[in-house]
Structures are given as C-alpha cells and as structure tokens.
Design brief:
Length: 136
C-alpha cells in the first residue's frame, strides 16, 4: 500500500478526505514498521495541536477495518502499519526494538488445519517476534 492508493481507496469507499486522515496515512507511508497509536498522536499533534487521542484511534481503526492498515498488539498496546499488498498471504517477523517487519511467506495453518478436523476456522494470525539484525 502507498499513500496515493490509500487515499484513492478511502475516496472509492465513500469516506471523506480530511487533512488529518491524509497526514496519518503520510506518516505510515514513510515507515516500514508498526507504529504505536500514541506515536501517531504525537506526530499528528505537530500539525493539528488540538487533535484528540480518540480521533486518532477512531481513524486508525477505520483504516484497519478497511484493510488499509494492519494492526497488532506489542507490549500491551496497539500498533499499526500499512497493509502489505505486495505479497500474497503471509505473516510477519516483528522487531521488538524498532518495530520493523519482514514478511514470512510460510503459513503454519497448512500444518495446523489437519489437527482441526470438524472445526470451522474463520481467520488466523501468526507473528514472530525478536530482534532484527540492525538491533542485535
């Protein structure tokens, strides 16, 4: 996902184009990592001093619901990143120090599904955590 595609997607789905949403998307377009909601708030307040945490959080969840952002939980708080559409189905290694990600093209569900005979799996999530080469 890139900034232009994200803005176009929002418009196509009938969402209002606002300067705050555009700035949120711009922040993600410059990072290839998960970013904490509180860090997005700090960055956004540089341009919009009166923006509230609730407004930022609502927009982040809207963008995640529309598959423009991906969400995960790190150290008890939500982090977000641009949705990866360059790969097919994949998962991520997430650096616990810097938040950078690397695609993992292996899906453990291929192995797990055989032990779930009779179960209806709606979705799944698989993430690997550790430290990237730059943070070791």
């Amino acid at each position: 996902m890139n900034l232009e595609k994200a803005i176009r997607t929002m418009k196509e789905r009938g969402y209002k184009h606002t300067k705050q949403r555009e700035r949120i998307l711009e922040i993600f377009s410059k990072q290839d990592q998960y970013i904490a909601a509180k860090d997005i708030l700090k960055e956004l307040q540089k341009d919009f001093p009166s923006v509230s945490f609730d407004t930022v959080y609502r927009n982040l969840y809207l963008l995640a619901d529309e598959s423009i952002l991906e969400a995960t939980e790190l150290e008890g708080e939500k982090h977000f990143r641009f949705h990866c559409d360059a790969h097919g189905h994949h998962h991520h290694f997430i650096c616990t120090d810097c938040g950078k990600t690397k695609a993992v093209d292996f899906c453990p569900m291929e192995t797990i599904e055989s032990s779930l005979s009779g179960y209806d799996v709606a979705s799944h999530k698989f993430e690997v955590y550790g430290r990237c080469p730059q943070c070791q």
